[in-house]
Structures are given as C-alpha cells and as structure tokens.
Design a protein that fits this description.
This protein is an alpha/beta fold and about 400 residues long. The strands form 2 sheets. The chain has an 8-stranded parallel sheet. Strands 3-2-1-4-13-14-15 form a 7-stranded mixed sheet, with no helix packed on it. Bound molecules: N-(iminomethyl)-L-glutamic acid and fe (iii) ion.
C-alpha cells in the first residue's frame, strides 16, 4: 500500500535536521520512501490513499529508551520519607528502595504484571511514543526476571508500541546474596545468561547498575564480557549518585548507552564520545531525588557525545510514565534546547537502542512511525506540562491512535 501524507509540517530529525513547513511523505507499507516539500512531490505518483493532516506538525514517533514500567506495587511511603529528608541511598541500604519493589514483583504473575503495567505503557503511547525500552531488574531471581521480560513482550502484543527489552538482573544484589555481590554476578554470567540465550528473542540487550549501592565497575565489566560473548549489546546505569568509573568501563565495551551521568567527568565524556556511546539523560530521576548535581551537559556538547532523554519510569526515582514531562524537565532543569530534546527522544534514542538505522528519523528507508502534534511551533515540544498536544500516532505506516488535542 502506497500512502501519501500531506498538508503537514515536518521535523524530520534526519542527519541534516531538515524541516519542511509544507511537507509531504510517501510510505510503502511500513517504510518511508520519500520525504520533502509538498511542491516537490514526484508528479503522477500513484497513491493508494492520501492522508491529510490539517496543517499539523509531524515528528518521528517518539522513543522512550530507558524505562522500568513493568513492576509490582508502588513506593509512595518511601517518597514521603524522601521528601521529609531521608536519602534514596539510605533507604536502599536499609533494604528498601529497589528491594522493596522486588518483593512486590516476585509475588506477581506475568498476567498481573501485564495488567499493572499496561496503563503505564498506554500513557506513553498517548504521548506519541511508538518504541519503548523496558528493563527487568525487580525480579533478581531467574524466574522472576523471566516473568518481567515475558510481561514486557506480552505488552507489545496488547498495544501498538514496539518493545525493546533489557536484562537488568544486576540492578541490586537480591536479599539471598546480601554482601555476596560477586557470587551473584557469577551466577548471572554462568547460569542465567546461557539459559536466557536459549530463549531466542526474550532479551535485546544487557544493562547493569554501577553504583556504590549496587555493583562495582569490575563486577559490571565481568557481566558485560559474558553478555557480549552471547552477542548482546550492553548499556549501563552509571555515575548517578557517585563516580566509580562505570562510564569509562562501559565505553571500553562499546556500550550503546550510559544513563544518568550526573557525576560524569570530562574524561568520561571523552571516553563516551570516542566509543559513540549515547548519554541518556534522566531529568525526572534528577528532579525526584532532588539530586545536588547536574549532569555535565556542556562537556557532552563540547565533546559531541550524542544525548538522549528518557522517562526512566519506575516506582522509585521516577514514578509515573511521561516522556513529555522528561522533555520539559530536560529543557527547564538541564538547559537543553528544544532541538536537543527532540533529537534526544528520536534519532539519539534510537541509537541508544542500537536501532539508529531504522527508527527515529523521517527519512527514506526508515520505519513509518510518526507522531502528529496540534501545535503552532516546534518549541511547544517539551513546553507543556501535564497537557498533551499529541493528536495522532502512526506506526508502521498505519494510524494506530487519534485523540483530541
Ligand atoms: O534508573 N538507578 C537505578 N535504577 C532506577 C531506579 C530504580 C528504583 O528506584 O526502583 C533508575 O533511576
Ligand atoms: Fe533506570
């Protein structure tokens, strides 16, 4: 089916960041075949259908490249303690935080996890998100991690969103391995990775939390070596509340992404740039944890580290599920421009998932995933708070959602 999309303005997010105020797109099936100014549409193009967008702005479908939306329970009581002054790290050291969610997640079946997580995924979809990364990491035993990943895959069958999964078994040491982090990493490397490798298509990449309250750079290094031997790309939660060398280690592995990075240094930025690793900025977690330190945006700019922005949706540091909130916070709290933020939720987010040659740009050969916006100017992206101007979502060349905006 050949479709012509017209009467629209276009933010392509392609390599030249082209903008067409009166633009047009041609798609064949699920793929974009032509993009340009409406006046340049090839004459005599035999379209099976023409879709008029009433002057709306079109961007690539947004990509939320870092979420933990599959989990059981909630941590509202911890939020109350944190707002009263107890730190995230102190709660984690007491056995709360991530381990609190582990207890609720272990108790949940796949069906329950899907039922609890579906509204969160729907909220992201309605904001224009067509691809979402979902991590495990609240199971911390083989079967519970597997249930989380099965739930993530099941969600992709229920809603028109592409799901990319990350195994985050190294999110925290489970209670049964308290103080024996090395043994836990060995167990993941020796037993879990080979078992997951047999279940083709369950895991797309391997992630870890490198932090004083989680795993050391050496432990994450061992995990990455094992993961890569199975062919999985790697990425890392690094330098969130301290700097223990995670991002430099991840860069040595050619990691797709390093996420958080509040405590990254200039050497870290140089290493990420050389490796082509995407810096994934998570302003909602920065805001919720009332982080005292901003990620070094100017160093990332100076050294040309590609930057992405993600929701980090999770029950602890970023409760909720809103990429648009993250976009607003990236502008207000991190001083990113609207163009940097848009790149961060499209082309650079795709790259953070290893999908930069097929997703995140409106360009020939890319998948026809679009979000249409009822806005007057692109500066409105990441401007509105708690108001959603997304009015149509197209996935693989088909309109999958329309809403008043
Ligand atoms: O990305 N930093 C580690 N992981 C999550 C938080 C998980 C949680 O608190 O439940 C994050 O912020
Ligand atoms: Fe995270």
């Amino acid at each position: 089916m050949r479709s012509v999309w017209r009467n629209l303005s276009l933010l392509t997010c392609d390599d030249a960041r082209r903008v067409f105020v009166d633009g047009a797109i041609v798609t064949e099936g699920d793929t974009i075949t032509w993009v340009g100014a409406a006046k340049d549409l090839p004459a005599g193009i035999a379209a099976d259908r023409t879709i008029e967008l009433a002057g709306r702005w079109l961007t690539p479908g947004l990509i939320d490249c870092h979420t933990h939306i599959v989990f059981g329970g909630q941590r509202a009581a911890e939020f109350a303690r944190r707002t009263a002054g107890t730190s995230y790290a102190d709660i984690a050291r007491e056995g709360g935080g991530i381990l609190n969610t582990v207890r609720a997640t272990r108790a949940a079946s796949v069906d329950e996890l899907v039922r609890r997580s579906e509204p969160r995924l729907r909220a992201l979809l309605q904001e224009g998100v067509t691809t979402v990364e979902i991590k495990s990491g609240y199971g911390l035993d083989f079967e519970s991690e597997r249930r989380m990943l099965l739930a993530a895959r099941a969600l992709a069958q229920r809603l028109p969103v592409a799901v990319v999964t990350s195994l985050l078994a190294a999110h925290a040491a489970p209670p049964e391995f308290k103080g024996r982090e090395d043994d836990y990493i060995d167990l993941i490397c020796r037993e879990w990775l080979p078992r997951f490798a047999q279940e083709h298509g369950l895991i797309d990449m391997v992630d870890a939390y490198c932090e004083s309250i989680a795993f050391s750079a050496t432990q994450c290094d061992r995990l990455f070596t094992a993961a890569k031997a199975h062919g999985w790309p790697v990425r890392l939660h690094a330098e969130q509340i301290s700097n223990i060398g995670g991002s430099r280690m991840a860069a040595r592995h050619g990691a797709l992404a390093c996420d958080h990075l509040e405590y990254a240094t200039e050497d870290d930025a140089i290493a990420l740039a050389r490796a082509g690793t995407v810096a994934v900025l998570l302003p909602v977690a920065y805001y919720v944890l009332a982080d005292p330190r901003l990620p070094p945006l100017d160093l990332f700019r100076t050294h040309r580290v590609p930057m992405a922005v993600a929701s980090d949706a999770n029950p602890g540091s970023a409760p909720g599920a809103s990429l648009q909130t993250a976009m607003n916070m990236a502008r207000r709290l991190f001083g990113m421009t609207s163009g940097e933020v848009l790149d961060g939720v499209t082309r650079n987010a795709a790259r953070a998932l290893g999908l930069g040659d097929r997703l995140g740009q409106i360009a020939p050969g890319f998948r026809a995933d679009f979000a249409a916006w009822s806005i007057d100017t692109p500066d409105e992206l990441g401007y509105w708070i708690g108001f959603n101007p997304c009015s149509m979502i197209v996935r693989g060349g088909e309109i999958v959602l329309e809403r008043d905006a």
